[in-house]
Amino acid sequence: MSLIRAATTVGGFTLMSRFAGFARDLLMARYLGAGFAADAFLVAFRLPNLFRSLFAEGAFSAAFVPMVAAKLGRKDGAIADTRPAVAFTEQALAFLLPILLGFSALVMLAAGPIVWVMTGGFEDGSPDKLALTTDLTRLTFPYLMLISIVSLLGGLMNAMNRFWVNAAAPIILNAAMVTALLVFRSDTAVETARVLALAVSVAGILQLIWLAWGCHRAGVMPRLRFPRLTPEIRTLLRRIGPAALGAGATQINLLVSTMIAARLLPQGSVSYLYYADRLNQLPLGMIGIGMGIALLPTMARLIGGGNPDAAVHQQNRAIEFVLLLALPAAFALVVAAEPIISGLLQQGEFTRADTIGAYTALQAFSLGLPAYVLIKVLTPGFHARGDTRTPMRIALVAIAVNLIGNLTLIWPLGHVGIALATAISAWLNAFLLWFYLRRRGHFAIDAGLARTAPRMLAAGAIMASVLFLLVGPIMPFTQGSFAVRGLAVVGLIGVGMLVYFGAGLVLKAYDPRQLLAAFKRDS
C-alpha cells in the first residue's frame, strides 16, 4: 500500500470520526452550553482523552508498532508468519493489563484530590461543581484501561498494514456519545452530563469488541497469558514512557491549559478552549495523525532494510502532502473563525458571548496548526530508528514553554493567551524536531519540498484575502435556520478551497498527476 493511500485511509476514517465528533459537540453545545455542567464534564473527560492520545497516537504507535512489525515474518514484501508478532503482543498484554487495572482503580479512588489538583476547586470555588466533576471523572475513567488495550490491538493491526480497523474505532466513541445525548439525555444539564460520562466508558467496551473482532478476522487474536518480564518487554517499557510524552506534548499542553483556565479564568473558559480545540483538531486528525501512523512503519521498514535515503525521501513527500492541506486549513480557521463558530455552535444554550469566546481561542490555536501537523510527521524520523528519548526531551522543553506562556499571556489575553501559548509551544517543538534530525544527518529538505512550500504559502495568502472579504457579508446567514447556517459555512469553506487549489495550480504548488501517481504507487 502506498504511503499516501495509507495516510488517506487513516485520514478518511479519522475525518468520519471528527464529523461524528462535531455532531456530538453540536449536541453538547445545545444541551450543556458553556457553563457549570459543560465545564465539569470537559474537565472529567480531559484525563481519559489525554491517555487516549498518549497511548493510541503516542506510545503504542512509537514503541510497540516498530517492535511488533519486526516480528512479522515477511517473504517478498508479504506477511508470511504472524505467530511471533502475536506471541509478543500476548506478552505485552499480560504485563500491561495488571498495571492498567491497578492504575485505573487508584485514580477512581482518588478522583476527588486529582480533580482538585487539576482545577484548584475552580475559579468560582463552587463545591457543587467540584463534586460533580469528581463524579463524572469516576464515570469516565474506566475508558483509560479499555482504550489502552484497544490501542495495543490497534498497534498490531497497523503493523500488519490493516490501518482501517484501528482508524475506525474512534467513530464508536462519538457515536455512543451522540446516542446518549439524543436518546438518554435528561431534562437538566447536570444529569445529561452524567449520562454523557457513562457513555464514554460504554464506548470503550464497544471499541474493545470492535478491535477484538478485527484481530479475530485477521487470525491474530492474542490470548491472556501469565506476565513475564522478558528482555523484549523491558525494551518496550523503556520506550513507552518517553514515546508517550514525546508524541503527546500537544495533549499534555492542553491538559495544563485546562488546569490553568479552571483555576484562574471565569466560568465558560474551559468550554471555549474545548470547542476551539475540537475545530482545530479536525485537520490535525485528518492530515497529521493519519500521515504519522502510516509513515512510521514505512520508514522503519526502509531504515531496517538499509535504505535510509529512501526513508528521508518518504518523509519529505509526507511533509509536502500534509502542508498542502494544513496550510489552507490554518489560514481559513484564523480568518473565518467567527462565522464558522457562529454557524456551527451558536444555538440553544450557546450564546453570542460564547461564540466570541470560542472563535478568538480558535484563531489563536490555529496559528499553530501547521506545527501540530509537522510534529506528527517529524517524530517518526526518531521513532523509526528506535529513539523515543529525543522527542521526549524536546516535548519537555515545549511543555515548559507552554506553561510559562500560559502564566504570562493569561493576564493580558485571558483564555486566548492560553491558546496562543499552546501554538507557540507547538512551533518550538516542531523546530527542535527538525533541528535534531538535520544535525544528525537523518533529514534534509529536498529540492521538491523547498520549491513547493513557499508556493503553498502564497496560495494560502491569496485564499485568506478572499475569505477576509467574505466574512462580513456571510455573518448574517450564520444565524438563520439550520439549513441556511449550514449552507453558509459549507459555502464559505468551499469558496476557500476553490481559491486555494486554483491558486496553487497556477503557482505550481502541487502537481495533480504526481499526487495521483503517489496515491497508486506502492511504498
How would you characterize this protein structure?
With 523 residues, the protein is mainly alpha-helical. The chain has one domain (3-520). Helices cover 83% and strands 1% of the residues. It contains 21 helices and 2 strands. The protein has helices at 3-31, 36-71, 83-109, 111-119, 127-140, 142-159, 163-183, 189-218, 231-247, 249-264, 269-304, 308-335, 337-345, 352-366, 369-378, 380-383, 389-413, 415-439, 447-474, 482-507, 512-520, and strands spanning 73-75, 78-81. Strands 1-2 form a two-stranded antiparallel sheet. A hairpin with a 2-residue loop joins strand 1 and strand 2 (78-81). Helix 15 packs parallel to helix 18. 56% of the residues are buried. The model has no long low-confidence stretch (mean pLDDT 84).
**Poorly predicted spans:** none
Number of helices: 21
**Helix fraction bin:** over 70%
Give the topology string: H per helix, E per strand: HHEEHHHHHHHHHHHHHHHHHHH
Secondary-structure class: mainly alpha
Total number of beta strands: 2
Strand content: under 5%
User: How can the largest sheet be summarized?
Assistant: 2 strands, antiparallel
Please give the domain count: 1
Task: Report the principal-axis shape.
Answer: globular
Query: Whole-number average pLDDT?
Result: 84
